[in-house]
Amino acid sequence: MISSKNPTAVNQRQRGFTLLEVMIAVVILSVGLLGMALLQSTSLRAAQTTNERSQATMLVYEMMDMVRANRRQASQYALIRENAFSGNGRTGWCAAGAPLPAQRWAADRNEWVCAVRRAIPDARGRVTVTSATAPAAPGVAVSATVEVRIEWCDPRGGALSGTPEFAALFTTGCTGTTNVIVARSGL
What we know:
Layout: H1 7-13, H2 19-69, H3 104-119, E1 124-131, E2 144-154, E3 177-186
Antiparallel strand pairs: 1-2, 2-3
Helix pairs in contact: 2-3
């Protein structure tokens, strides 16, 4: 029951929010907004990693197709090694208007290395061709197994737990996650 002596005293206490209530509401709102920002940044990192892995997968299979299309020079593709991956994918043999080599495998190498460097700047790759039978004569296609590998370090990710399916061969000293994409096929 309201005292008849001072009816305005009760009404004044119930008007508006106290400073403490406002501060608690601001803290709760801040925590929620920080959580949303963290979620957004995590999502962006994951999307970038997924994009790099997709690009690497497409590039690995592109090289496999190049080797299949040029079976006569399949053994030459084994000359594509990780030390060919220098520069930024826009200079040297990657520069616009750079002359193409006469050999098809060398032109494929240049095109592929440049595409890898443009898609994933820190990536390195390797093509391994293992002949199942000795060639009958020079320039004759042989039955072979081809392995194409792309590796790169992703500093955005943490170190992998457990053992990955393919161990890194030439990406060393990675402080994040070492990504390895490998494809094997017979010719």
